[in-house]
């Protein structure tokens, strides 16, 4: 006799459960050696949905009758030594029924060892090959063997499990160490009797328990309890006769997945006529979701998906053919197609696309959804691969991007649960990648790198490394953005092969010759692999000697932020980073905000097993204000799994430069001249040009779904499209449509979540855990526009500007969401489960009117009356035990998990609290909220169950509405006060609104009037009282405003000529009025009116805000005046007639000890007492770190005055003094993160007439880099100082644009009198600045400009030359050169922020990398500043050179021979040294220390001929040598 009972629910009695029971006689007969027949006789099926254990099982007779023929069909199975082998069954036996029979055979599975009584092994069963422990005892007296075996379902060598919708998640092993979300075990007890042929199973009992909780299991879990019983009855002499059909091999004892993969566990649908059912569902969805979303729309959409899944491609084609010309039906079908989730979806899209039956937009929309929803089997992957070659896809860049990225995603999903993924799947992309690299197709290479990154296939590592600069020779010529995408493409591979990726990225990180950005990206990838302690410590040791501060700052900040992580998934990395941060110096914390940063923040709850993390990576390469790249990522942790939810990356490679530089900067002559100058430099290397302006990519669930590279071509195409006649005609047609009226509605259904895990039970029934969320959004819109006068047929923009436009729009957006969480059994025949269901419905109608009269300066916005539904929003959450079967769907039973009888009958008792808040038109508001909690209901079974009902109401008088929020809740926390038990029950929130009787609002209105007619539009004339007149005697501005407003109102009532006179008298003044009002049904106005007046001649502005309520005299008045360029004052008053409270605010600027300063004073006569309370509250929230640096002293100051004085002691330091009536607070030397443009404050700035150049100038003042020279000491852009020993008569490059554009060059030369000369090459001019007696003179292209003629403005380029102090300055911010200043003793060069990292010369790169300051023209980093300065000298070609320079760069030989590496060697300098030309002798020298490369003395080396080769050699030692500064030449020199 066999019986199996499966029950799902919470373990406590007294709550509802759902289950199934099957019992039957089992007949087993041998038909050959080790081959048997098994047959069920008289099977019975029962369903259970009720309160456990008091309710009874209900016979499922209709289901039994439908399955009887299959259940009683004998099957064959092999059985030897207690082990079940192959299973054979007729084709007519469904997989579901065969799995039930496997459950019977699973009881017979025994691996008995004669030599051991207790042993452990991995044993095959219905659920896979799992760890099994045997314990055997013998009862000799009773001649019985007692055998017990237990199976641990969490330790399986091969677990039968099916995950759907989890391909993008990662298992959090650390999260599950102490507690698991899903745990299962089974205990088998046998009573065996020895018989001559072996042993006889007298009785077998199986008890299996699988428990699940989305939270920590220690806080309780739902469970699936399976019990099996097999009792021996007797031996019959009549053998079982097999049926007369062919028996097919149907697998083994292991469970096989059947039709449950396509069956949602939420509903059962009996398919009788697919076409008719699809038509009925579509019509229902279309008809009931026009004006608003129907409550059951999400469920009906799920039903449509389920029927489509049961349909074949022919059925879908027929439905499409029937409704393709109906736009609404068509949209519902296209939204449902991706949710089918099989290759049928892709096949349908492919066919319709080729037939041009769907538009490109529809193809993109359905393809994006399908890629992420379709199961990635081999057939689906082949369809996507075929799509990549279709001409329609290839010719459309957007579609091609979607398909290619989708192909990578499909491969990733297919390989997600496979140990070894076929390389054939990704090989087509490898071949394309090889071709793209060979053809140097950069855009195609980037696209394919993103495809490989999505796929995450380990075999993609080889083609990826070929485009990395340290692994392939071809990669050196590729742009940096290709290298960036190559590194990012390894992130998904790292999830499968972390050790392999770690080796590669560590190598890249430690390669200091690599671009800093690439090294920082390698750091990101490395920490995503969760490196071990040793590797992180190694990284910290490397960082201690790191010369690149961008890399050092980024890595240190990344380690420090990870050291504070609380997520269990990151526990090992957190520990390692804690150690690493302690190894490193805290000085990295003091680096400015301009250096690269990594920020990581997270929160995680162990009890909820729920958490989230956010990371932001700020990557800079030259300490510029605009970073080179920003990456932001959000990550989620839930139920022991982790996923990268969303990631956005932005690169701004050339954006800042494009925005700020002069667009007409390219000049062939200028570039030629500059290249001729620098040609003489040894191995000069230009920096690459950043062609793209920027790029953006978007990742969802770890998969890149879209990206765009923004370049000039794309912008030009966008501009051309926007200005094309077609787009203009489209805009005109749209406006004509508005004028004729538009009525439309848009509906978008979405299957947002479908996550499933299917696990077989011991009895052969599938247990499913699933989460579904579906939503339907609807927006019904009615738009009507009109124009007065009517627009002509071919109207232009000028007609619109002269017309009075009216627009009235009514929109009714609504949304319905349903979410289901299910645990139980799910097949296409029956379902028994516990179900949590959440419903959200919301609708928010609005009717808006807009009136615009540009000629009259009037704008009016109105909120008009609209029918408001009773429920604006409602959320209801319930939990049920559910049972249904396909043969008796009307008998479906849904029972609340917490039964109604557990409460005392309190249904008729209601405790409702109301909160009425009356908001009048004044500024004061008051409300009271009272609430009662109904609790104390006494349960029948357990202790107290609390049922809560609350109702909060508020009346908003200004809108004439009364809004109520109703809360209802009951849960199972009376059993266990844990999150899981709080979820079980019913929770409801409802938002209701209705009009207040007698206070209905006809409309809400905002009107703005500008210009002469502003006063005429005042709703409530502002007539100040006599008392106010007296008060305004001390405030003439307010009095003036009062007179203007009153007189305007009078003129409004007089003749039109009077209005005309008002208009003509206001040419130097302007006024504006606006009103925010509501008009009630009783014609009472509420709201506020704002009036403003600007008097330009006196630089005075006045503002009055007045309440429109008839009995309310509250006002707000403000009067401000600009007394001078350095002082402004304002008086602010408010309260009744603006006389209750008042303050005076004065701000002025000036100098304190010749330092710029600003002062702010606030005085008052009377203030509300609440201000003091607010000040104390604000003070409590001021961080203690700010207060720590303050010096406070008690002093008696002005009684009713606050003052704040700020003195700028330098462009980065402030002294602050704040005075209150009783205290004086000081903060000295406050360091600012950015520099202040003090020069712009102290003096006039150039480009006063050009706002763009002036903005560029000010930005450069704040963010630019400055190099200066004074007292023989040069200070570089990076603030490094050194003595510059200059040679006579030779030009040195101070600073130049080191990119290939060569936008500017600044040269310096010391003449024979040891006076400095400056030459600036920019645009098409040469500017020479030189000393002339006691003055400074300037020449432009060889022509002297008299000082009296300055400032000089270049006729075409934005370049200015002007006197400044004792010298002259050259300004060209649009060319990247902010300023070059020169006087008798000093000079300075300042470059724009966007030029940082692109300069070179004596002043350096301006990249903030002080440890890499001294770089020679060939890029070598040296240590001696004098040698560095000499490397930037422009050498002469001969001693007869017109420049009078008599020097050249040489590699010198060390005068003595040394023993190097054990052999006698001769050494040559690898750093060039200044030496006199042949025929010249040194008159002045200076010692320099340079690097030498040594060769064996027998080596052949002609260093004079092989200078370039020598300069590229490594440094073996450093020695001092002599550099020449002044040379004397013979008359016969060469």
Summarize the structure in short.
This protein is α+β, with helices and mostly antiparallel strands.
Helix/strand layout:
Blueprint (H helix, E strand, L loop, with lengths): L1 E8 L6 E17 L2 E17 L6 E2 L1 H11 L3 E6 L2 E8 L4 H14 L9 E8 L2 E12 L4 E16 L2 E3 L5 E2 L10 E14 L2 E15 L9 E10 L15 E3 L24 H14 L9 H14 L2 H11 L3 H10 L6 H12 L5 H14 L4 H11 L2 H4 L2 H19 L11 H12 L3 H14 L5 H5 L14 H9 L2 H4 L3 H13 L5 H13 L4 H12 L4 H14 L8 H13 L13 E9 L4 E10 L9 E10 L2 E11 L3 H6 L7 H11 L15 E7 L2 E8 L1 H11 L2 H16 L1 E19 L5 E23 L8 H6 L1 E23 L3 E14 L2 E8 L4 E6 L7 E15 L7 E4 L50 E10 L4 E11 L7 H5 L1 E11 L5 E10 L15 H7 L3 H18 L2 H9 L4 E12 L4 E11 L4 E8 L6 E11 L2 E10 L4 E12 L2 E12 L3 H11 L3 H5 L2 E4 L6 E8 L4 E7 L3 E9 L6 H5 L8 H13 L1 E6 L2 E3 ...
Antiparallel strand pairs: 1-2, 1-14, 2-3, 3-4, 3-5, 5-6, 6-15, 7-8, 8-9, 9-12, 10-22, 11-19, 12-13, 13-14, 16-17, 17-18, 18-19, 19-20, 20-21, 22-23, 23-24, 24-25, 24-26, 25-28, 26-27, 27-33, 28-29, 28-32, 30-31, 31-32, 33-34, 34-35, 35-36, 36-37, 37-38, 38-39, 39-40, 40-42, 41-44, 42-43, ...
- Overall geometry comes to globular
Number of strands: 65
Helix content: 10-25%
| Alpha-beta content class | alpha+beta
Strand content: 35-45%
Number of helical segments?
36
Calculate the terminal CA-CA distance, rounded to whole Å: 117 Å
Poorly predicted regions: 903-943, 1023-1067
Radius of gyration: 42 Å
Largest sheet report: 24 strands, antiparallel
Mean pLDDT across every amino acid position: 82
């Amino acid at each position: 006799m066999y019986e199996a009972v499966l029950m799902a629910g919470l373990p406590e009695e007294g709550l509802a459960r759902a289950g199934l029971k099957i019992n039957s006689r089992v007949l087993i007969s041998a038909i050959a050696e080790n081959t048997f027949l098994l047959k069920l006789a008289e099977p019975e099926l029962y369903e259970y949905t009720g309160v456990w254990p008091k309710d009874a099982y209900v016979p499922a007779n209709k289901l039994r009758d439908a399955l009887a023929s299959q259940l009683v069909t004998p099957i064959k199975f092999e059985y030897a030594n207690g082990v079940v082998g192959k299973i054979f069954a007729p084709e007519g036996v469904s997989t579901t029924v065969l799995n039930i029979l496997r459950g019977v055979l699973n009881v017979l599975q025994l691996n008995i060892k004669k030599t051991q009584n207790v042993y452990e092994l991995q044993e095959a069963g219905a659920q896979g090959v799992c760890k099994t422990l045997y314990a055997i005892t013998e009862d000799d007296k009773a001649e019985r063997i007692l055998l017990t075996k237990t199976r641990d379902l969490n330790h399986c060598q091969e677990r039968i499990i099916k995950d759907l919708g989890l391909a993008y998640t990662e298992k959090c092993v650390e999260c599950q160490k102490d507690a698991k979300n899903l745990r299962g075990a089974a205990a088998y007890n046998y009573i065996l009797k020895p018989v001559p042929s072996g042993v006889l199973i007298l009785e077998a009992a199986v008890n299996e328990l699988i428990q699940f909780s989305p939270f920590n299991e220690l806080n309780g879990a739902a469970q699936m309890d399976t019990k099996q019983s097999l009792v021996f009855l007797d031996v019959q002499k009549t053998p079982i006769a097999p049926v007369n059909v062919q028996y097919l091999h149907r697998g083994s004892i292991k469970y096989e997945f059947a039709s449950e993969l396509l069956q949602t566990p939420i509903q059962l649908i009996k398919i009788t006529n697919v076409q008719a059912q699809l038509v009925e569902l579509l019509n229902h969805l279309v008809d009931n979701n026009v004006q608003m979303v129907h409550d059951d729309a999400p469920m009906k959409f799920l039903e449509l998906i389920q029927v489509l899944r049961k349909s074949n491609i022919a059925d879908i084609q027929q439905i499409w053919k029937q409704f393709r010309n109906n736009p609404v039906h068509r949209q519902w079908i296209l939204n449902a197609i991706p949710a089918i989730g099989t290759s049928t979806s892709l096949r349908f899209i492919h066919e319709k696309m080729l037939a041009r039956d769907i538009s490109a937009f529809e193809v993109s929309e359905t393809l994006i959804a399908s890629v992420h929803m379709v199961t990635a089997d081999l057939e689906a992957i082949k369809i996507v691969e075929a799509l990549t070659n279709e001409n329609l896809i290839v010719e459309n860049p957007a579609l091609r991007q979607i398909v290619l990225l989708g192909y990578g995603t499909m491969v990733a999903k297919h390989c997600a649960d496979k140990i070894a993924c076929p390389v054939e799947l990704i090989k087509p992309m490898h071949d394309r990648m090889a071709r793209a690299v060979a053809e140097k197709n950069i855009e195609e290479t980037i696209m394919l790198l993103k495809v490989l990154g999505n796929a995450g296939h380990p075999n993609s590592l080889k083609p990826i490394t070929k485009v990395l600069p340290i692994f392939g020779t071809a990669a050196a010529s590729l742009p940096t953005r290709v290298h960036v995408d190559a590194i990012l493409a390894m992130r998904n591979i790292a999830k499968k092969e972390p050790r392999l990726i770690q080796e590669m990225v560590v190598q890249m990180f430690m390669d200091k010759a690599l671009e800093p950005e690439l090294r920082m990206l390698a750091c990101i990838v490395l920490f995503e692999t969760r490196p071990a302690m040793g590797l992180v410590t190694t990284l910290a040791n490397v960082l201690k000697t790191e010369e690149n501060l961008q890399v050092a700052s980024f890595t240190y900040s990344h380690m420090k932020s990870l050291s504070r992580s609380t997520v269990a998934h990151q526990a090992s990395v957190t520990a390692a980073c804690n150690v690493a941060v302690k190894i490193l110096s805290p000085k990295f914390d003091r680096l400015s905000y301009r250096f690269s940063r990594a920020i990581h923040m997270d929160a995680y709850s162990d009890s909820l097993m729920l958490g989230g993390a956010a990371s932001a990576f700020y990557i800079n390469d030259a300490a510029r204000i605009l970073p080179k790249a920003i990456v932001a990522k959000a990550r989620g942790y839930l139920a022991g799994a982790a996923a990268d939810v969303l990631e956005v990356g932005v690169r701004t490679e050339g954006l800042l430069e494009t925005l700020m530089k002069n667009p007409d900067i390219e000049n062939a002559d200028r570039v030629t001249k500059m290249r001729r100058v620098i040609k003489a430099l040894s191995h000069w290397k230009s920096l690459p040009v950043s062609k793209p302006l920027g790029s953006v990519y978007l990742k969802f669930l770890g998969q890149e779904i879209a990206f765009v590279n923004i370049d000039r071509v794309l912008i030009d195409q966008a501009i051309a499209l926007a200005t094309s006649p077609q787009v203009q005609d489209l805009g005109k047609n749209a406006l004509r449509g508005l004028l004729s009226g538009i009525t439309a509605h848009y509906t978008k259904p979405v299957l947002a979540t479908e996550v499933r895990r299917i696990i077989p039970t011991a009895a052969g029934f599938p247990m499913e855990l699933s989460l579904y969320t579906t939503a339907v959004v609807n927006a019904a819109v009615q738009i009507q526009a009109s124009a007065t006068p009517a627009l002509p047929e071919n109207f232009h923009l000028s007609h619109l500007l002269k017309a009075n436009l009216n627009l009235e729009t009514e929109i009714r957006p609504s949304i319905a969401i349903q979410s289901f969480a299910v645990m139980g059994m799910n097949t296409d025949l029956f379902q028994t489960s516990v179900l949590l269901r959440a419903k959200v419905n919301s609708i928010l109608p609005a009717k808006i009117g807009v009136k615009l009269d540009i000629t009259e300066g009037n704008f009016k916005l109105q909120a008009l009356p609209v029918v408001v539904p009773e429920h604006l929003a409602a959320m209801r959450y319930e939990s049920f035990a559910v049972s249904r079967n396909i043969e008796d769907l009307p008998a479906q039973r849904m029972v609340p998990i917490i039964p109604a009888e557990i409460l005392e009958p309190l249904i008729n008792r209601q405790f409702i609290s109301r909160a009425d808040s009356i908001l009048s038109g004044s500024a004061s508001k008051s409300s009271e909220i009272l609430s009662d909690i109904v609790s104390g209901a006494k349960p029948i079974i357990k202790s107290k169950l609390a049922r809560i009902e609350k109702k909060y109401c508020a009346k908003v008088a200004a809108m004439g509405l009364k809004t109520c929020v109703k809360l209802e809740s009951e849960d199972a926390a009376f059993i266990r006060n844990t999150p899981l038990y709080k979820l079980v029950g019913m929770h409801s929130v409802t938002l209701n609104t209705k009009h207040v009787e007698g206070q209905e609002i006809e409309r809400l209105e905002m009107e703005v009037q500008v210009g002469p007619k502003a006063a005429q539009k005042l709703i409530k004339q502002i007539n100040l009282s006599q008392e106010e007149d007296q008060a305004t005697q001390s405030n003439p501005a307010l009095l003036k405003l009062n007179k203007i407003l009153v007189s305007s109102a009078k003129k409004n009532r007089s003749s039109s000529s009077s209005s005309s006179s008002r208009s003509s008298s206001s040419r130097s003044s302007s006024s504006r009025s606006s009103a925010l009002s509501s008009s009630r049904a009783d014609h009472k106005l509420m709201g506020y009116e704002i009036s403003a007046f600007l008097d330009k001649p006196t630089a005075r502005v006045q503002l009055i805000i007045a309440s429109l309520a008839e009995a309310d005299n509250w006002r707000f008045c403000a009067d401000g005046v600009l007394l001078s360029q350095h002082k402004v004052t304002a008086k602010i008053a408010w309260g009744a007639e603006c006389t209750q409270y008042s303050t005076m605010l004065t701000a002025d600027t000036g100098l304190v000890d010749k330092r710029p300063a600003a002062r702010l004073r606030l005085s008052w006569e009377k203030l509300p007492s609440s201000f003091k309370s607010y000040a104390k509250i604000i003070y409590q929230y001021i961080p203690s770190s700010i207060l720590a640096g303050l010096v406070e002293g008690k002093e008696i100051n002005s009684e009713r005055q606050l003052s704040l004085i700020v003195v700028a002691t330098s462009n980065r330091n402030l002294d602050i003094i704040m005075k209150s009536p009783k205290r004086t607070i000081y903060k000295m030397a406050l360091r600012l993160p950015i520099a202040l443009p003090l020069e712009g404050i102290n003096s006039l700035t150039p480009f006063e007439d050009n706002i763009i150049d002036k903005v560029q100038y000010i930005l450069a003042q704040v963010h630019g880099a400055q190099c200066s020279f004074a007292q023989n000491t040069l200070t570089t852009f990076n603030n490094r100082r050194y003595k510059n020993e200059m040679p006579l008569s030779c030009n040195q490059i101070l600073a130049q644009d080191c990119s290939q554009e060569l936008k500017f060059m600044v040269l310096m030369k010391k003449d024979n009198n040891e006076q400095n000369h400056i030459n600036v090459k920019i645009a098409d001019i040469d500017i020479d600045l030189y000393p002339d007696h006691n003055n400074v003179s300037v020449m432009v292209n060889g022509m002297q400009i008299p000082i009296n003629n300055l400032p000089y403005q270049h006729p075409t380029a934005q370049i200015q030359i002007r006197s400044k102090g004792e010298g002259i300055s050259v300004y060209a911010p649009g060319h990247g050169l902010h300023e070059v200043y020169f006087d008798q003793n000093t000079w300075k060069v300042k470059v724009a922020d966007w030029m940082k990292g692109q300069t070179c010369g004596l002043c350096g790169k301006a990249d903030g990398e002080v440890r890499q300051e001294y770089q020679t023209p060939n890029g070598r980093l040296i240590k001696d500043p004098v040698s560095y300065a000499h490397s930037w000298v422009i050498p002469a070609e001969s001693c007869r050179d017109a420049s009078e320079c008599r020097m050249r760069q040489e590699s010198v030989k060390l005068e003595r021979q040394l023993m190097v590496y054990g052999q006698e060697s001769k050494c040559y300098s690898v750093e060039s040294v200044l030496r006199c030309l042949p025929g010249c002798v040194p008159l002045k020298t200076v010692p320099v220390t340079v690097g030498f490369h040594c060769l064996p003395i027998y080596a052949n080396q002609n260093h004079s001929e092989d200078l370039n080769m020598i300069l590229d050699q490594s440094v073996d030692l450093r020695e001092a040598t002599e550099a020449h500064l002044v040379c004397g030449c013979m008359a016969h020199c060469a």
